[in-house]
Records
---
Amino acid sequence: MVSFYFKGDARDITDHLLLLKEELTPESDENAKESLTDTRILQSVLDICIAGTVTSSDTLKWMVMYVAANPKVQTKIHKEIDDLENNLDDLRRCRSKMTYCEAVVREVMRIRPAGPVALRHKTLCDTELGGYDIPKDTIVYANIWAIHHDPKNWESPEVFSPERFLEKDGSLKKLDTKTWLPFGSGKRKCVGEALAMAEIMMFMALFFHRFRVSFPPDVQPNFEPMMFEINATPFPQKISVQKRE
Ligand code: HEM
């Protein structure tokens, strides 16, 4: 077991990992030693900095854009957040009451998944998928974007509609993880899903509690994604942000 005792002032997760490494003794658990080699520490920090930042910030950018372009959605978000009656200090508890906001997050992640083709994987053996033979050692990508925009899976997939994730009584529908998979699927699915959902919901509540967003009248919103190898980012564009009364 790793001991969670820290010397000094740990400023962030890198400090915490380095301090844990300092605590190791020859008698320490072998798993702990293996988890705290310099290479593993560097890799963990890179995972957080790369896998865990652009994905969340892109999702937030798309969210602000779709909300700005859909005033009725924004009105519902504001109502749901206002109904929390300033209990925003306890956002973890509030989340269960933010069903509309969560439907908005799900719809943003469906229509603009931050990792549209997940990460690259390699086949370990000759295999067959959907009638195609795939030899051993082939690099493969999962086309999440296509699954999320397939009319067989989603009615009017190009339309932004958080309501598709809601039951008639306003509760969240059970997710079909075969057709909604912004975090990938299977054993190598995103390890940061729970953290990402928590931080995105927190940002959403705090941001829309204070602000209203819209596209300036002279701006034509551009929802085309800038595609990099593994992420889909919005093009820079002007959005007007007003403080709510
Ligand atoms: C909206 C936010 C996020 C989205 C949409 C997202 C999406 C994804 C996707 C699609 C994959 C690839 C899964 C696959 O290849 O099957 C992935 C992997 C990964 N994600 Fe995330 N992610 C997000 C946030 C985060 C956060 C906050 C962290 C960590 C702090 C994180 C850490 C990772 C790691 C370490 C992997 C690689 C897992 C492995 O290879 O076993 N992600 N993510």
---
Amino acid sequence: MSAPMSAPASAGTTHAAVVRSFDAPPRYEAVPLPEPSAEHEITVDVLAAGLHPRVRSAADGSHYTSEGTLPLVPGIDGVGRAPDGELLYFVLPGTAFGSMAERTVADRRRALVLPAGTDPIAVAAGMNPGMSSWVALRRRAGLRPGQDVLVLGATGGAGRLAVQIARALGAGRVIGAGRDAERLKLLPGLGADETVSLEGADGDVARRLGAAAADVDVVLDYLWGRPAQQAMPALARARADRAEPLAWIQIGAVAGADIALPSALLRAANLRIMGSGQGSVGAAAILAELPELAERISAGDLAVDPLAMPLAEVERAWSAPVEPGRRVVLTP
Ligand SMILES: NC(=O)c1ccc[n+]([C@@H]2O[C@H](COP(=O)([O-])OP(=O)(O)OC[C@H]3O[C@@H](n4cnc5c(N)ncnc54)[C@H](OP(=O)(O)O)[C@@H]3O)[C@@H](O)[C@H]2O)c1
């Protein structure tokens, strides 16, 4: 499936968000609609598509999978109506024609049927941030019931869901760490046993992390950068038994792309650093985890906080101030 977006509009057109420069937000335009070209491809009427950090980074060319191809229609997933009327959640491969369009082409093998009555906006808002912790806990950490989890960066959309998902998947203690005091206060209501503020002097933050989370089994790290660099030695040094495995799952990098990692730390504690994302977990394994996550979001078991905006206002949506933790969802 490919779409020559410079081609003249034809009967097969659709309105879409179109990125023509990595320096500017997408604009709402009529573009030719790609034809389904492979056996499993179908055209779907898009009902909702989430504006995730991953979508922004693809649209500004900074995502690690970006190949620098323009123009592109952003959007990596969404909820849509199939030609047979079924309501689908679909994930798109890294194509140039994404989900931020009235219609797009989806692969049925990367789609799952949602129960009638599902709120498309909640699913479009929650699946991407939710799968970050769901997949990490199931496919990377191999979380066992009763194991303790620290969520580093628990105040964002993905972090808030990570607290709920760790709880839902049977974690023992769940600790949420973040820098926004007001949003930290919301975490106990979502299932956190304890919260840790990442604000303040390095030594104070390290002491707080050590006191609250030294003996966790799993860290879900959305921050990397300086907070991870503070937290790793803080936890490793304060552990009651340093030989106990500590699975450090790298998921996001909102606080920095790099850290300095002292070699001694890897000798002094059983620290197992790994990532979870496209590549480190295969597409089939990610897809296999999605139905249960979708079910939980559809059933309202996991709280998501969407902010629906019309696709036609994509330019405004792109730069609108949105409270962290909320997810903009574009609706055609
Ligand atoms: N690997 C995967 O499978 C996967 C899947 C989905 C998402 N992700 C990644 O996960 C990350 C978080 O995604 P999201 O959807 O939760 O984004 P989000 O809703 O925008 O939340 C980001 C959070 O990070 C906080 N933050 C920013 N800088 C910080 C710092 N220096 N120290 C502490 N907190 C800081 C922000 O809160 P304040 O600014 O208020 O402190 C905000 O709450 C992104 O990097 C995203 O790409 C990865």
